[in-house]
Amino acid sequence: MRCSQWCFLLLVLILEIVASCDWDDCDEGMSLRQLRGQKTSQAAWSFEKPDPELLIWDRIMHSALNSTTGRVNRTIYNGWLKVPLVHDPALMEFEMPPYVCLRVRGLAALKPPAKNGPMLAHCGGPGSGRDCAMTMSAANFDIDGRHAIISDFDLLSIDQRGVNTSSDRYERAGKWGEVPPCPFNLSGRPLSRFPTIYCDEIAKYVEEPRKLMKLLTPIQGNASVEHDWKTYVEPIWRSGKIPYADMAPTNETFVRWYYRLVKLENSLCYETPRYKMRAPNGRVYNAMQFASTVDCAHDIDLLRRAIGADRMSWYGASYGTSVAGVYASIFPEVTHRVVMDGAVNPRPDTEARSGSCANGIQAVWGGIEKDCETSLVRNLSADEVCPAAPRVSSKALHVLKGSNRTEASYLLELMLFTVFHAEALAPLAMACIEQFYSGKEVEGCNKVLPMLSSYRIASNSSNSTKAKKDRFGLAIQSAVMGTDSAGRFDEEEFINWWRRVKDTDPIGSLWAKNWMVAMSTWPAYARPVPPVADAGIEAVIIGNLHDPNTAYENAQLLKRNFPEGYLVTWQGYGHCLTVPQHAMTLLKSYNKSKANNTLPEYTNGVAKYACMSKILSYLETGTGITDGHTCLMPEPLRLGSAAAAEVRIHIE
């Protein structure tokens, strides 16, 4: 047979194969489809009956769960999702990577099938777990009692890569029972879950300080080794942070040793055998290289495909905004409604993201100072006026630079606690600023000092008696954000950055340095996220003016990247637009006022409630939001001595 006849027959065969092929299946080639565990023909998968090659529900619970407006009967699905360790089509054409399992939880819509499809809830971290949808469902998604969101969406959450699967508060002994093993196999071997990310490798060296010090810095003599170990290294290692005593967080030598310890911990942790995974062909992969936000986004899209959903909606809080934004950027055609609350800086750059952390904290402290100063001119009673006014900043600086280092260290610690718990702790911080500055007792300050002392003792003693699994509390943050962000600062570059930020954002630098060190010392090569943007998605972006974790500027940057979206600004304090726990009381009060034809009092709690109601209306209908909307906070913080006397706070 001549060549032309062979070619003709070959062409006919190819055309027959193409004609019989579903284009959604044939897109990536047979080998890639098989590697991903997809069937060769499309099936009508659903939330209740997902693709068994990708997702298996192994525990279905029927339970009455708390919501803001009472108990609601829910059907809760728990199962395992099978994902490739490496989402790389080019790699998959040559070899099969290891596969891992991720634990998933879904809350079925009250009115199945869900009118609006699935919505993925991610609570941030990095390190959000499968309980996020349940948490948001109980707090944010049902504040008005109409059950609109939980009726019309199937709510989903996933254990992000590296999350401790066994730490869930529901799937454990005495509750629903221990987590069943992953049911999937590959090449005849059962798959394991993605390993929990934690780092405490330095612990094995602490009984040999000289050996540890040799890893940290060149040894310059026995006296120097012993002095540095006892003065700097051991206190940082014991507490997992720079201790506050004697203003150590402002001491450059302490900051240098902190950088060295975290760098060594990350390097040792990255190379530990528990993160090594073997592919079917024998190649060994390091799982720590594949815990990025892009990996998470691809995992979630496999989840979407497993339940046969055409589109996925999102509610991302804090770092969850990064996951939602990356997903929307990579998979815009399957992205439905998106809410991003408490935006992470979208620039995949170590310095930009660390600086953003400092800016957010400084903005909160600036707002507290402003509310204190303005209390003088608000026609308040004597014990309602902020005791640190006027000149709050000058008084605080005077104490922090003064000779009494004990008072200075307590104030520094209290100021940082305050920015994260502004409404609760700000009155006590103002009382202590005035007391330490004037030397006269101010009501409220003496209440918080014993609590700070107890916190320090507990923090140090707990780490000295038993090893802390994640010594510096930065492991999963280092792995995720370090992989996501370009830029690695060596020790001198880091110190120069710290000196600048310490001068411009003195309170913010205390927290921002942790993120800078975590990202700068991560040993893996970076795989920065793509530009978080899409010109067509109508995302809702919520920014708080006084958010310590995520600076308000981030929301403005994110809105610029989603030009068809909507920016909503909350003027208040706190991380994300968290609805107060007394939302049920607010709802009852509102309904009572409505029945009596009177207007309810417009408080900060009511303002938050009204703001969140608009967000939920958008999720329900896709409408109801106006770009540039500001949710007004009607009341400044109460910072007088009377407010300090009423405070009930437990420092954790």
Defining key terms:
ten-stranded mixed β-sheet; 44% helix; Peptidase S33 tripeptidyl aminopeptidase-like C-terminal domain-containing protein
How would you describe what is shown here?
- This protein is of the alpha/beta class.
- Among the domains are: 196 residues, no CATH class; 121 residues, no CATH class; 86 residues, no CATH class.
- The protein is built from 23 helices and 14 strands.
- It has a ten-stranded mixed beta sheet, sandwiched between helices. The protein has a two-stranded antiparallel ribbon with strand order 6-7. The protein has a two-stranded antiparallel ribbon with strand order 8-9.
Strand content is 5-15%
Q: What about the largest sheet?
A: 10 strands, mixed
Average predicted local confidence, pLDDT: 88
Tally of DSSP β-strands: 14
Low-confidence stretches: 6-42, 463-467
Percent helix among the residues? 40-55%
Specify the number of helices.
23
In the sheet with the most strands, the strands line up as 1-2-3-5-4-10-11-12-13-14
Radius of gyration, taken over Cα atoms and rounded to an integer in Å:
27 Å
Terminal CA distance reads 83 Å
Protein name: Peptidase S33 tripeptidyl aminopeptidase-like C-terminal domain-containing protein
Organism: Durusdinium trenchii
InterPro entries: AB_hydrolase_fold (IPR029058), Pept_S33_TAP-like_C (IPR013595)
Keywords: Signal
